[in-house]
Each structure stands twice: as structure tokens, then as C-alpha cells.
Amino acid sequence: MRNFGGPRAGELRLGLGADRNLSHEVVPTAGQAGAFSSQDRQNNGYSGTPMWKLALERAQREQASAASAPAAKIPDGFKPVEQIHENQLPPSKRPVSGGRWFYSEKRQVFWNATDLKMYVLDPASRQPAELHDSMTSELRAMVGACFHENAVQTRHVLVKDLVKAAQSLRLSIDHLDQPCAIYALYEGHRGTPSASNAGNSCAEFCAKNLHQKLLLKLSAFRGYWDDKRLEATMQEIFVELDNEYCAKHPSAVDGCSALVALVTGERLVLASVGDVAGVIIMQNGEAREPLKPHALRDPDDDDDDSDDQAGGPAAAESAIRLADAPIRWTRAFGDSDFKRPGSAVQLSAVPDVSVIYLNQQYRGVALVCRALYNAIGKSVAVSTVFRRSRGRPRIASGALVDAAVQWMGKVEVDIGLGSIVVFFDGIEENAASPQKRRKTEQPTQVRLRHILLKHKECKSTVDKVRNKQVKRTRGEAERMLRAVLEECEVDALKCTKAFTQRCREISECSTSLTAGDLAGDLGWVKPGKNEAKFGPSFDTAAFALQIGQLSDIIDSDSGVHILLRAA
Fold it and tell me: What number of CA atoms fall less than 13 Å from residue 366's CA on the CB side?
């Protein structure tokens, strides 16, 4: 049958609201109109327009009405974007695509009436990006650092809570996954000591400014930070920081290598220039180095792990022997004389970046100065120290320094001997049952004993137990406490006895005079009770201990401590 225009039978049935799956429909004809009352007539008020067309127009009007009207109540404080004055929200900051948009000036967030979601404007693409709700991981990162007293060109930064650091600068990064922390090691070279600076101006500048620059970038976008955005931002920060240093110190030759570790949720972001070693330690003891050093290979070094041998940025200098090269680094902060036009060697400050998704297979990460790393035997030694330190990062980093000093002998020159150690804990509990997690909840009070050693940097350097002035350095005090911990853990059954004996012998707190097996007793301690005296790190360590367990080394204004939880 030929179709001379108009809808087919199926289209007619669909326009009238018929089920497309039915094989036929009964439609009243004009002759059957008398069988219905006036209010029931299908064509009452018929205008001459075909019924199928009227039905389609009605459906189109309903769809347009549904798209234009909010499906839910507009949140408090939000106004239609078109009603916002340009000085409050200029055109360049208005969403440009899809849906009806509302804006809260107070929250600086958009609401889309079509999908009922909150959005922010991506400063890079100028397009709306969904507002990210922070997720909190079970991951717990424990960090410690130790540096030899002669490592004068080395600086480090440990920001354990980046959210609080942002708040102190009146910034907000609440949208980032938690925990959120940054650890950075800057190993200076070619430093020019002056009356005001005995170290390295480049390392000092980076240590003061990099994490603040990072906070500004992180607070500027409240959407989800995917891996590519994190990588690009790290590279942007490094280059900007290097340009600022070179502009402010045009005649300085100071430079520094750097390794920055950002933890957000269960992601670890490593960014590196130069040759600071970054070592990932797995639970099975395996050591991995995700980033290669940016330095010419030492001819005396048998290990082929340098950037130039791998075909990286140093490939152009691979033919230059270390002894003949004006500088051994191929990427670094500073070193302004090798970044000027016409320089024989052109250095870069663009970092390599690696994003690692942490899980129960990861034990921790170490950031290690190159001289120390080479002296102790590289990754094998780091893995061994991780295993022996039993989750105590301060002990582990100190043990790495001790091992280097023991191998090299007495260190009397400026050399980069230091490390930052981070242990990851709690990841394996993600899949644990609620009953198991409840067993590890923080107690309301603990019974503690401690050993205290003072050093020259304390507020009071008087040992009131022996009534004498303390002249030891912080490093010497820490080495004494590391020896105590090793002695106590040789035999777990004799740990308490050894702790008591050593407490009486060396502790410089009057609690060491307590009789019996309570030497060093601090009594029952509740959260916050000792914060004014010993600082917040004291409670953090104390309430993470199990009964009979020894803590890591803890800093306070009084000195350095180790704790033993008695009950």
C-alpha cells in the first residue's frame, strides 16, 4: 500500500499513547461519536489538526517544561546565574554549557537544576567540574627524620596535616582525600656560606616556599584531582619555584636536589629533580625505586641506575665523564649559571612525577640523601632497616644515618647524611570486620613510663636528677635512645626489666627515681593532659601503643623521649 503522507499506523498509535507492543488498537470513529456523552468525546473542540500531531506537540511541551523547571527545591543561598551581577561573577567565570545554573557567592559553588549536583569552575578549562567530596582512608602515615649535624646544606619539611596548614594560611583544601600530608627533602650543593647563611640559599628557599605554593594550587580547584592534574601541577610548581629563586638570586650558584612526597587518601605522589633517592618498601621486603636520579653516573659506581644510562634527560651528557663535567646534576633547583643562555650545560627544573596507589602490600617509603644511600649499600640496606625498626620511622631514619657514619668513619665535612622515613599503617584494616576495628579504638586513658634525655636545644639544659648541665647534641641524645630500644627488644620477656634499669641509669626526669618497677612512671594519662608540657606528638604516640609496647623517639621542649605503655 502506498503512503501518501501522514503518520503510519504505528506512529498514530504511539502518538495516542498506545503501547507499541500491542498488535492493534480500537479507535472510535466520527460515526461512533453519539455513543459517548459530550464530555467523553475524543474530538470535542477539534481544531482540524491531526490527533497524532497534537499528541506529539503535547509530549514536546511536557519535555521542555521538565527541562526548564527545577526538579527539586533550590538550595538556600543560591541565585540564578543570569541574576548575578558581573562584578560578583564575571562572564569568564560563568558555566557555558547545559542545564539551568544557580550560584552561591558565599560558598562559591554552582548548582545545576538538571542533575541536582554541585559544581565548581575548572580554572584550566573554564568548564564546570563536579565538586569533590573528600573521602577519608583508613591509611595512617607515620613519619620521622634524622640528619647528621654536619649536613648543613640539607633541609627537610614534614607537614603531617596539610589541611590544618592550609587553614593557617586562610586556605581550604577540605575537598582533598584524607589523610593529606607532604614530606620533602632538599639536598643542597655548591652552597656559598655567608654571615647570614651557613647552609644553602637554594635549599632554604625551596623548603620555605614549595609547600605554600602547593597549597595555593590545591585550594584553587575543588573538583577531583586526578593523576594527570597532580602531575602537571607538581611540574608547574617546580618550574615556577626555580624561576623565582633564580630571579631573586641571579648571582648565586647554589643549587639543590629535591624529592617531594604528597600523600592524599591512598595515593602517594613523588616528584623529583636531582638525585635524592626515593625508595618504596613492600611488605615482603622488596625495594622499588620508581624515579631514577637526574645525575651523571659516577665512573666508580657499578650500578647502572642513573638517568643518562636510561636514555632520560641526561642522555646528551652521557659521553661526559664525571671528572670532566662542570656539574654532575642534569636537573636541579638553582644552579643559575647553568640555566643562562649559552651555558655549556643546560639544567632543567622539570621534575619526574610518579603516582602510586597504596594498598596492604606497601610498608613505607624512604627519602634518602644520595651520599648516605650510596654509603650504606642502597635499597637492600634501606629494606633491612625498615624490617628491624618495626614501624618506628624516627628510629629507622636514625639507624640509616648511624650505618653511614659507621661505614664512612668520623664525618667532619659538610655532606648530605640524612633521611625521611614514612611507614604506612591501617590499609590492611579496610576490609576488616567492624568487630576487629572496634578492638583497635583509642583508649580513654593509658598508664605510661618514659625515659627522657635532654640536649643543648632544650628550653632547660639542666639535669635535675644529677644536678648538672647537659652539653650533648640532639643527635647524641637520639643515638643513646636508639641503643636503649635495641637493648630492650633483644628479649621481649626482659623488656620491662631492661627499660627499668636503663631508666634509672640515664633518664633525666625526676620520675626515674620512683621506687620498684615504676621508674619513669607518669601515672594514668588522659588525652590532652600532657600536651602543654610535652606537645601534641606525645599523645599521638602514647595512645597508639599497645600494653607493653615501646614508642618511637618523641620530641618535646624538655628533650627526647621513649615511652613504654604499662597498662
Answer: 38
